[in-house]
Structure formats: C-alpha cells, structure tokens
Amino acid sequence: xxxxxxxxxxxxxxxxxxxxxxxxxxxxxxxxxxxxxxxxxxxxxxxxxxxxxxxxxxxxxxxxxxxxxxxxxxxxxxxxxxxxxxxxxxxxxxxxxxxxxxxxxxxxxxxxxxxxxxxxxxxxxxxxxxxxxxxxxxxxxxxxxxxxxxxxxxxxxxxxxxxxxxxxxxxxxxxxxxxxxxxxxxxxxxxxxxxxxxxxxxxxxxxxxxxxxxxxx
Amino acid sequence: xxxxxxxxxxxxxxxxxxxxxxxxxxxxxxxxxxxxxxxxxxxxxxxxxxxxxxxxxxxxxxxxxxxxxxxxxxxxxxxxxxxxxxxxxxxxxxxxxxxxxxxxxxxxxxxxxxxxxxxxxxxxxxxxxxxxxxxxxxxxxxxxxxxxxxxxxxxxxxxxxxxxxxxxxxxxxxxxxxxxxxxxxxxxxxxxxxxxxxxxxxxxxxxxxxxxxxxxx
DNA sequence: CCAAAAGTGTTTTTGCTACACCCATGG
DNA sequence: CCATGGGTGTAGCAAAAACACTTTTGG
Lengths: 217, 217
Fold this sequence. Notes:
Two copies of one chain form a homodimer. Chain A is of the alpha+beta class. Chain A has two domains: 5-128, Nucleoside Triphosphate Pyrophosphohydrolase (Alpha-Beta Complex); 145-206, Winged helix-like DNA-binding domain superfamily/Winged helix DNA-binding domain (Arc Repressor Mutant, subunit A, Orthogonal Bundle), CATH 1.10.10.10. Helices cover 26% and strands 31% of the residues of chain A. In chain A, strands 1, 2, 3, 4, 5, 6 and 7 form a seven-stranded mixed beta sheet that branches. Chain A binds chain B through residues 1-6, 42-49, 70, 72-73, 75-77, 84, 86, 88, and chain B through 1-6, 42-49, 70, 72-73, 75-77, 84, 86, 88. The structure holds a DNA duplex.
C-alpha cells in the first residue's frame, strides 16, 4: 500500500520595522537550488505534526518559544517535482527579536522578508503564504492572536499599529482604545514607557497568555 | 525514511426529519469490529485528499454529487492502535434523500445517526464530529453553506429551520427573512409551494451555487 | 516654547432586537 | 368557517463610527 509522504511547512512571522515579515530559508539542494522557501521537513512516523513543526523551527533557528497552529493541508499532485509529498502547513509566531540564525545541510541562508516584497519561492509556498495572510486578518480580528505578537509590555499605540499593519488600514485611535479596554484581554501595568521625547505612554500586558477567541474589532 | 500513513475520514451530513444527521458505517474488521465509525480510508500516493474523500464516499454509498471541504488533520499518536495513521478529516454535504446504501468487505452496515444520539465510535471519530459541529455553526452563520443543504427550490421557513437545527436556537421569523433577503444570496423563483393546507409559500433558490463567505445572521 | 505622540467624550448613524396581527388556502 | 403556516412593519436600544482638542515630556 502506498501513501504520500507527509511533511510540514511553517509560516513563521513577526512584525519588524512596521512590516509584516515571514521567515524564509534559501535552499541549497535539488530541486530548487537557490530558491527561497518556507522552513519545512518531513514528519516522522511517531511524531505529532505540531511537534514536527517545532522540531523543524528549532533546527532552522534554535528558537523554541513560540505559538504554532495548524493551517491547512496542501496536496497538489505536482507540488514537489521529485516525490508525492503532502504538506500540513502551520503558522508560528516568534516574539523574540533575536533569533540565532543557523544554516545546515539543506539551507544556505535564512532571512526575514516583508510580505509585500517576497522573492520567487519554491514549491507552492507562495500559495501557503497567501492562504495564511487571509487567515491572519481573520484571526487578528476575532482572537487575541495580536497579543502574541507583542512583547511582555507594550503601549496601546504599538498594539494598534500591529492591527493596522495586518489589516492594511488605519484605525481610529479612540475607538480602538475603547474596544480593547472593554474586551478585558489587556491590563494596565501601571508602568510608563519613558524613553522618548513625547509624553510617556502607559504600558499594558496581556491578561491571558493563551489564545482566546474574542471579537476585538 | 518513515512517514505516517495518510488517510481521510469524512463527516457526511444532512438534515432529515428535523434532525442534524451524520452518516456512519459499521466496521467488521479489526481493530474495532462492530463499532460505528466515519467512512474513511487511505489516501493513495498519486491522489488528492479531496479526491480520496470523494472516492471513499462513492465506494460506501454510490453518491458522487456532493460538496466536500477539508476540516482539519487529526494525528494523535495512538488514534489507531494498529499503525501510525494521520487522518485528514473532511466534511461533505449530501443533498439527495435517497442514497443507495452499499456494504462491502470493510463495512457491515451504514446508517444515519442524529448528532445527539451518537453510538460508541471507533478511533477518535467522536472528536472529529465534535470539531465539525463547532465549525458547522460558524460556517452556517458566515457563509452560504446552509444553501447547500437545501433542495433546488425551498421556502424561507424551510431554510430558517435549517439554521435553527444547526444553531440549536429559535430565530425570529421577520428578522430572519429581512437578513436573508438583504444579503442577496437567494432569489424568489416566482413559484409557490402549493401542496398543503396552509397558504402557499414562495419558493426561493440560491443565486450562486458556490460557497460564498457572507455574514448571514 | 516647540515638536511629538498620548490621552480623552460626545454626537450621529447604523444595525439589531423584540414584538403581534392579518392573509391565503383546503377541507 | 376553521385550522395552519405564510407573510409583513415599527419602535426602542445598543453598538459602531466619526470627529478635534488638550496634555505631557525632552530638548
């Protein structure tokens, strides 16, 4: 009995310098030498798909502190020209700014790309990213996923800009603050961010570290 | 290199006699002889997951005219006691009332069950059904999935009862009609349903056969 | 005192909810 | 003329959207 081989590809993302960014690796193996791709690898026989995603990211970047969730199965027959491989795509959020980049046998480079300046990519990885972008807009609106993108403490303006970057539109400052405070997913730490010229901003933190489903906007 | 074996299990559903029903098959093979289960089988190497779902349903019930979509991957390590099998769960809508039931080597029986009177089930199929029920509530509210459950022509009251069954709550008749007519997903055929004692009801039809995302309720 | 971002309320508009009666038909 | 479900409108309320000025700080 023959079955497709199972793999996973992971969309690791973050917001850096006011841009939504994705982590890509540069392949140095056939069949797509020199093309960029999502980090991905095979799933072992006795391994959970989620664990496989964690393992792959750890191997690619030594990062293990992240939130991962399943996205969708990508299974076009010819998505991999060499073999019949079905991929379970995941999305992962990295908080830390510093990720120690590694390269190994299969990767010659690893880097962050803005979603509106993506390079030519291997396999169907562009499809995966497009699918994830749609899902992301929805998730940011209806869950506390946005908070997973923030550092431990953050200002309301910083949080608002995350929404604006993901949703690609401006939001009203007063309405935004009202809704977020009313939804009880963040709390005032009492501290102020006092490292700038303008008036110090209150620092907030997420009340719950886990992802919750809440209608935020 | 070892990879899990890929399979798919399909939640085939419908509304019959004012109940939300799922199609289950009775296994006559190890490891769950005499238990009920979702129709499911392995995915062949050169086959799309969606095609596999269609094939399985055709083999189980000779039905091919249905809408199928991917649900989620179920991959608990011990979900199958005999082998490492990862299942890509799908949901499928059958419209026709008459499905010619078949049994074969692996199935000794096939039948519809109400979702609130489910039998003891094999594998993690109860988890799959529970997950699907959550998703279904959402899909009915935010897409035209409900229309796929209707025959070619239907009355507004019939459509309303589909919502009420899936959402497990009563809806206001006037508000329901206003919202549905305002969302431009159905149109009046001009015909009337004249087979009863009460006043004849207008028959509507779906404007678009494909699934659309619309906020209906 | 100037630049820069923080912070704050009210009004208007919109959409949702709740609610009760008359209508058309077949027997 | 009766039983049965079909069909219709409005008023009140709550949430969303629109909108502009004052405050705090460092230089």
